[in-house]
Amino acid sequence: MKIQVTQSSMPPLDEYVSEIKSIWDTKWLTNSGEKHNELERKLTQYLDVKYLSLFSNGHMALYSAIKCANLTGEVITTPFTFVSTIHAIVQNGLKPVFCDINPNDYTIDANRIESLITDKTSAIVAVHVYGNACNVEKIEEIAKKYNLKVIYDAAHSFGTEYKGKSIAKYGDISMFSFHATKVFNTIEGGALTYSDPKLYNTFDYFRNFGLVDTDIVSMIGINSKMNEFQAAMGLCNLRHITDEIAKRKKVYERYIENLKNVTGIKLNYYNKDLKPNYAYLPIVVLDEYGMTRDELLKKLADNGIFGRKYFYPLITDLECYNKTFNSNKTPLAKDISNRVMTLPMYANLSLEDVDKICNIIKNKDS
Ligand SMILES: *Cc1c(COP(=O)(O)O)cnc(C)c1O
To answer: By the 8 A CB rule, do 120 and 101 touch?
Structure first.
C-alpha cells in the first residue's frame, strides 16, 4: 500500500452530479455563470471579506493581482515559497528582492525587510507558508511608513484566522489557490480577496481579456476565468470544509503526539494567535537526528510512504533563477530548504497510517 503526500478532497459523487445537473439546462459553461457567482458570494462570506474574485487558478490570480496593483521596480519577497510566487513577480517585469525567513514559522522575516527597501521598492509580496501567518502587524507598519502595497500569497491559508480575524483581511490583496492539492479545491482554481471596491471590475475585466462588454476592451487582459464545473466542485467542497479541517486537526495532533520527543526532528507548532487549517505537516531534519532529510525521505519511500521536499530547491537555486540571484544571501532559507520535508497530510489519512509513518521516523535503526 502506498501513502502519498496528499490526497484531494472530493465530495460524494452523487452530490457533485446533482450540483452540475442544472448546467445541462442552462447550457452556460463559463463566463460568470450561476455556479461561479454563487461560489463567489459564498466564499466572500466564508472568508469574511469585502470582495472576492474567482480565477482559473491561483497563479493567474496572483499574476493579475500584481498586474492590476500597478507595481513598479522592486518587490520584496521570500525565496522560501512555491515557484508561482516569484514567477508572478518576474512575469510582470518586476525585480524580486529576496528577504531571508524566520526559521520558526518559515515566513518572511519582517525584521529584515526595512534594510532591503530602496527608492525603487513598490511592494511586499509575502507568503503564509504552510498556513502559518506572516508577521502581518510588522509588515503593515513598514508598508505604511514607506507607502508600499502588500500582497499576500495565501495559497496555503484557506480558512485560517489570525488574532480572531480571517487571514484574508490582512494586506491590500490576498491570493488563495484552490488547486486539487490544497485544503479547499475547485479542481484547479483560485481567488483574490481585497477591500478596494474599484478592483472588483478591474479583475472582472482583466480575467476576461479586458472586455467591459462586447464592444469595449478597456485593458490588455488575459483569459483566466473559472468555469462552471470548477465552481460546482467548489460549492460541494465548501459544504464539507469544517469537517475536512477537523479531520486534518486530528491527523496533525497524532503526528505531534508521536514525534514531539524525537531528537533532531523539528515540528511546526502553530502560533497561539492562529486558528490553523492544518494544510501541511512539515518537519525539519536537524543534524542531531543522525540521518539526512534525503536519507529519511528515501527510507520512507522504501516503505511506500511519499513525503515531499517542499520547498526544495530554494527558488534562487532553480535553473531559471540561479544565474540572476544568489541563494547564499538568504542562508536561513537555504538551510531550511536543505532540511525540510512535508509528511503525508490529508483529511482521510488514518491515524493508524500516521502511527506507521511515525514509527519509521522514530526507529532509525530498523
Ligand atoms: C499552489 C500554490 C500557488 C499556485 O496556485 P495554483 O492554483 O496551483 O496556480 C502559489 N503559491 C503557493 C505558495 C502555492 O502553494
So the answer is: no
pLDDT tens per residue, range 287-318: 999 999 999 999 999 999 999 999 999 999 99
* E strands present in 171-256: 173-177, 190-194, 211-213, 216-217
Top mutation candidate among 63, 78, 82, 176 for ligand 1, by most atoms within 8 Å of CB: 82
**CB 131 within 8 Å of CB 276:** yes
3 state SS for 339-351: HEEEECCCCCCCH
In sequence order, what are the beta bridge partners of 173?
151, 194
The identity of residue 134, as a single letter, is C
Whether the CB of 59 sits within 6 Å of ligand 1: yes
- Within 10 angstroms of residue 321's Cβ, the number of other Cβ atoms is 21
| Each residue's pLDDT tens digit, 236-255 | 999 999 999 999 999 999 99
Q: Which of 56, 60, 78, 84 has most ligand 1 atoms within 8 Å of its beta carbon, as the pocket-test mutant?
A: 84
From CA 41, how far away is CA 34, in angstroms rounded? 11
Cell of 240: 464539507
